[in-house]
Amino acid sequence: MVADVDVSSDFYTDLLGMKVVYYKPGDVFGVDTPGGPVCFMKFGENHLYLRKSQHPEHKAYIAHFAPEVANYDQAAVKAELIRRGYKPAADSKYGWSIRDPAGMRVEVAGKGLPEHVAGDCNGANPNCPGGPDK
């Protein structure tokens, strides 16, 4: 969560060469969109999801992070998390949310989560904003 999505996305694209996978402006046809703007960025297999801060003073903060699990199988991941004493909550067909020991939300995710959040592109739809491999 950041104070200004556009300024932050410019920083990551210009300085680090991250590619925009999906961008939704906060103002569509002169009307503010709820939660907008939103920007998903990619660098290699790493993704960064930028949203406008919901903090009363618009301070930046980390809401959660989502490491991608190789060969993700939703049922197997859920079973393993339960076996380890966690209480997984489904975020989507691509991930389970748990809390780390400090209370930070961690989403254990499979490939396709960023594309799903950006419009359920299933990680392979060439019509997905930004394309599947960009």
Multimer state:
single chain
Distance between the termini: 23 Å
Percent in helix: 10-25%
Form type: globular
Low-confidence stretches: 122-134
Largest sheet: 4 strands, mixed
Radius of gyration: 16 Å
Order of helices and strands: HEEEEEEHEEEH
Number of helices in the DSSP assignment = 3
How would you state the average pLDDT, rounded?
75
Description of the structure:
The chain is built from three helices and nine strands, in the order αββββββαβββα. With 134 residues, it is of the alpha+beta class. It has a four-stranded mixed sheet with strand order 6-9-8-7, with helices on one face. A three-stranded antiparallel sheet has the order 1-4-5, covered by helices on one side. It is globular, with a radius of gyration of 16 Å. The chain starts with a helix and ends in a 17-residue tail after the last helix. The relative contact order is 0.17.
